[in-house]
Amino acid sequence: MCDMPRIPCSNIGLIMIQRVLPYEGLLHEVVEHNGVLYIGGIVPEDASLDMSGQANDVLKQLAQLLKTLGSDLANVLQVTIYMTSLKEKAEFNAAWKAHFAEAHLPARAAIGVADLGPGVKLEMTAIAARPPQA
Which parts form a coiled-coil structure per UniProt (predicted)? Predict the structure, then answer.
């Protein structure tokens, strides 16, 4: 039984897998398995922004997506950031610290990549817990 409307689900034995928000027939933005949300790549909506602006944009998108799914940034377990320039990591870190409370910092990795598309400086994936609904 899916508790979220319009979400294709599949049961594998007693394991529930929910696929959320299809994207152009290539993937689902989020896949949920046993209360764990696997969030696909989030890129900035405005690629003309500097690293700080793009980082804030992506982190706000993540926070909003988690809210929609019944979770929040305090429940993020792990984040992977793909960056076109690791020299801009300090700017990313400043945005990161503004969004995550120190008590709820997730595990994290930053990976340098050659290209993410025109103007895009970063892409982020995340894994988060979705607390049981009361």
Answer: none
